[in-house]
Specification:
Helix 1 links the parallel strand 1 and strand 2. With 403 residues, the protein is an alpha/beta fold. It starts with 7 loop residues before the first strand and ends with a helix. It folds into two domains: 174 residues, Rossmann fold, CATH 3.40.50.1950; 213 residues, Rossmann fold (3-Layer(aba) Sandwich).
């Protein structure tokens, strides 16, 4: 799935050591389906060459406002009119100051002033430069003017110091550009998500778990952030990175057992929507051994099971009312081996929730693909097999309409 298919991005590059990341950023944007047109300042050419950027993008690189290759000799007009967004990476302190004051003394600044499309800036500078009062004023003015700032982040800097001002990595910028173009149907909403498996200990080295990879829950977390929501992600043991971590829109809580996930969910701050995506173990071991259970020939240990708390049922029972509407809006998930719609709808009614999502097919565990059926009181809707992120975006829009 190419999340930026047919999008036209003008990639501006200003002077700064972080310009070395621009080629990789251009490559990743193009892998997501975008066409990339590069505009470079004179200072940027000290760090990365126009030849490099032209070779990567397949498009001529524009360097000055007097470029006669454009028929009307107005590059600042022609380049912006066909663009879906202008993205400047890196954005130096000098360029931020110019743009905040409306100064236009080269092609890139003139292009930004003459644009009729969104402007996204990725600040990159030494920590003292970022913390300087003048830079703070520039950032404040730019935000007030409707400019989007992506970052910066904190970390090691080229000068050897550590602190805020480091440009986001190309993968982080690409994710945030994708998020920028998504419909903000959950703006201002708070979303709680459980994801992944749980692990029920038998002894210190053994336990009971399942095949859940956590990919669907993490995809929903990313799609919710893209839609403008603040997300609290409660994750069982899985090796997945937090989506869009750099935006600060996701709070992650890691748990292991079903009881830990239950406690984290019930103690989480109020949310508008709850997605119970995690594959929670229905049973745990009544008395896990403190030490490793030694094998006694072919004799199996006698394990006593105990029912784990029902997270979705308890959240549904605790539903509150705001403005005449119940919250959180609970969305359950059901993985069945037979009679999916029948069993999923029975689960929906048993839990007392408005919507449930059934996973279709035995090959969904660990796969990047999935097929779903969404069931509520009005009936069922099948969503064709696709990548999990694409399905998550569709699900988010369906839930947004319901609330």
């Amino acid at each position: 799935m190419q999340s930026l298919l047919n999008k036209k991005i003008v990639l501006g590059i200003s002077g700064g050591i972080a310009a070395y990341k621009a080629p990789e950023l251009a490559r990743q944007l193009m892998q997501e389906g975008a066409s990339v047109q590069v505009v470079m300042t004179e200072a940027a050419q000290q760090f990365v060459t126009p030849v490099t950027m032209q070779a990567l993008t397949g498009n001529p690189v524009y360097l000055n406002q007097w470029d006669s290759s454009i028929p009307n000799n107005m590059a600042h007009i022609e380049l912006s009119r066909s663009a879906d967004a202008i993205l400047i990476a890196p954005t130096s302190a000098d360029l931020m100051a110019k743009l905040s004051l409306g100064l236009a003394d080269d092609l890139l600044t003139t292009l930004c002033l003459a644009r009729d499309c969104p402007l996204l800036l990725t600040p990159a500078m030494n920590k003292q430069m970022w913390e300087h009062a003048a830079t703070k004023r520039s950032a404040k003015r730019l935000l007030e003017d409707g400019v989007t700032l992506l970052g910066p982040a904190s970390g090691f800097q080229a000068c050897g110091e550590v602190g805020m001002g480091r440009m986001l990595e190309p993968s982080e910028i690409t994710e945030q550009v994708i998020a920028f173009f998504q419909k903000k149907s959950l703006a201002g909403k708070k979303v709680l998500i459980t994801a992944g498996p749980t692990f029920e200990a038998i002894d210190p080295v053994r336990g009971i778990t399942n095949h859940s990879s956590g990919k669907m829950g993490f995809a929903i977390a990313r799609a919710a952030v893209e839609a403008g929501a603040q997300v609290h992600l409660i994750a069982g043991p899985c090796g997945l990175d937090t989506p869009l971590l750099a935006t600060g829109q996701i709070t992650r809580t890691n748990v292991v057992s079903a009881k830990e996930m239950h406690a984290a969910t019930l103690n989480a701050p109020d949310s508008d929507i709850f997605f119970a995506v995690a594959a929670v173990a229905d049973w745990g071991i009544a008395k896990p051994a403190k030490d490793k259970i030694k094998r006694q020939g072919n004799q199996a240990p006698n394990l006593e099971f105990v029912a784990n708390p029902d997270i979705l049922l308890d959240v549904a029972k605790a539903t509150k009312t705001r403005g005449g509407k119940p919250y959180p809006y609970c969305v359950g998930f059901a993985a069945e081996s037979t009679d999916l719609e029948k069993h999923a709808n029975e689960k929906r009614k048993r839990k007392g929730i408005p919507m449930i999502v059934g996973n279709i097919g035995p090959d969904t565990f660990g796969s990047d693909l999935n097929q779903m059926v969404v069931i509520d009181a009005s009936g069922s809707k099948k969503i064709a097999k696709a990548e999990k992120l694409q399905l998550a975006r569709q699900l988010i829009q369906l839930v947004a309409k319901k609330i």
